[in-house]
Amino acid sequence: MVRFGVLGTLEAESGGAALDIGHARQRYVLAALLADPNRPVPPDQLVTRVWGGNPPHRATATLRSYLSRLRAAGCAIDRTAHGYVLRADPASVDLHRFREKVARARTAADDVTAAELFDEALALWRGEPFAGLDSPWLTGVREGLEAERHAARLDRHDVSLRLGRHADLLATLPQLAAAHPFDERLAGQLILAYYRSGRQADALAHFEGVRRRLVEYLGADPGPGLRDLHRRILAGDPGLEPPPPARPEVRTGSLMELAAIRAVATLLIVAREGDFEAAARRVRSTADALEKEIGELAAEIGGPLVVLDDGGVRLTELGERLRTGARAGVAELAAIFAETRVSGRRIGGRLRVGYVASLGGDLVNRLTAEFERRHPACRVSLTPIRIGARWNEHDLLEEGDLDLVLHWAPGGDTRSFDLPNLRTGPPLLSRPRGLLMPEDHPLASRASVTLEDIADYRLLDPSKSLNPVARDQWAPPRTPSGRPIPRTEDDVPHLIGRTRIGPEDMLSLVARGIGLHITVLSLLERYPFPGLKVVPVTDIPPMIAVPVWRASEENEAIREYVAVTTELTAENAGIFR
Fold it and tell me: 473 or 53: whose pLDDT is higher?
């Protein structure tokens, strides 16, 4: 059975092996069919989904060619009277599994089950849906899917609050609320989590911030739900207190067995010390407590286990038999503990790694494969990302969805990442810079250019929201002699209508003559684009790729991933090109 993934990069695999689903435009065809699996998509509608309003001259023939290649790769695509149909088991598509688990969570009989189902559903997301593909139709699909994900998150928050897990929510809710500043339901969840965590001042301050934003931008006050929550907090309403923690169900027999095991351990200590007082000092208890514990064990067994002898303690025959048998169990338990402790210190769990798409999936896959070979208990999910317009902690790490990213740093250093709570590792590779321009541009015939040459033309402004260091390193504002280098009046996010920027965006803007772009010299090797050329820029530092993560969430898996990738790129500098 072929399994498909759309909640991240578009993926298809069968029997654990990835299918070759072709280049970007062919992937658009598969994406267009996967949006409606097992339902016919008319050819003209398929052409519109793939090419928008500007299809090529022979769009239908090209479409048939792509469909034929997808069939050859293993995708079950049929032609019917009503259009093309991708045959797929709903359980084989991660989007369907997400929706199925969310539906089950919303009708679950209890909150614990609901929380588990929501967690399983949200864990299926590897990043932005259909990452790396972009078209007007896909943008609409992507926005709809992100809305479904956000709704599931909000439902999961409500479940967590009902379960008394408000403290856990504070690890992610503030960042999510910052990304959705007008979402009153989300604001209410954060305010309640603050209040239940003993942070009433933060709860009231957040309400006031939301109220000001709504008045300033929308000319409206918060809705009745948020106003009522604010009133109840001010009144100290007992109904806002967290629910009591759930008590695990424990069988009486289990309690008796645990007490007996503890008493046997006490017996072994008393027998070794030969004295209740000495044994009590070792376990930080009292002689009376130990004597009572052993007496209860003796009553359970049905005979005395110890006798007093000249002020000391010795075991009876029954006590010796119990000690002899217990020693084997204690030795086995010690061995299990030692093995468990070692396993606990191994790197396991899940590591979510993002990488800027222009770094290349082949490089990142090779680095990750070596990490997983050394640490097979750790599952790594890889997500190609676009460069964000804000360039802050939450933007770079996909607002908490990623543990670490492999990201370009312009300027030959990591100063652009000198931000609160961010940490960077050693450079993994370095790439010379080049100027991207149309082939008929006046500088295209040059073997190389300098910033002085570029000052006569206009660079694309990467983003007015970037921190000043990052913005100036991507598109220098001045030449070494002090001449200003003009930038486009509108920045790239404004020009493309999105806050995340991919290589294809820069290629399209340069091809349209809107501005030039300083990029990596090898850009067109990875993203061929007819009519464009990259000429080396000789007086600008190289672009370096570095790992970036949150200092507050650093763990052994992140440290080891950085160590392995740094070691591998250093050893294979000539291979990773």
Answer: 473
Q: Three-state SS across 365-425?
A: HHHHHHHHHHCCCEEEEEEEECEECCCCHHHHCHHHCCCEEEEEEHHHCCHHHCCCCEEEC
Task: Map residue 234 onto helix, strand or coil.
Answer: helix
Span 91-128, pLDDT tens digits: 888 898 899 999 999 998 888 999 999 999 998 888 88
Sort 118 into a burial class: Cβ within 10 Å, 0-12 / 13-18 / 19+: buried
Residues with Cβ within 8 Å of 285's Cβ and at least 6 positions away in sequence, in order, are none
Average pLDDT over residues 178-195: 91
Contacts of 447 (CB under 8 A, 6+ apart): 535, 536
Query: Residue 416 in contact with residue 395, Cβ under 8 Å?
Result: no
122 contacts: CB under 8 Å, gap ≥ 6: 98, 149, 152, 153, 156
Provide the whole-model pTM. 0.47
Task: Pick the closest to residue 239 from 229, 247, 225 (CA basis).
Answer: 229
Domains annotated on the chain, with CATH: 1-163 (1.10.10.10), 164-242 (1.25.40.10), 256-344 (1.10.10.10), 349-429+544-571 (3.40.190.10), 433-540 (3.40.190.10)
| Residue keyed to tokens 């003796």 | 298
| Residue 258: band (very low, low, confident or very high) from pLDDT cuts 50, 70, 90 | low
Q: What's the CA gap between 402 and 351, in Å, rounded?
A: 8
Are residues 203 and 195 in contact, defined by beta-carbon separation less than 8 angstroms?
yes
**From the centroid of its chain, how far is CA 187?**
22
The tens digit of pLDDT for each residue in 406-436 reads 999 988 888 988 888 889 999 988 889 999 9
Q: Give alpha helix (H) positions in 274-374.
A: 276-283, 287-301, 317-345, 361-374
Q: Could you give the CA distance from residue 171 to residue 176 in angstroms, rounded to a whole number? A: 10
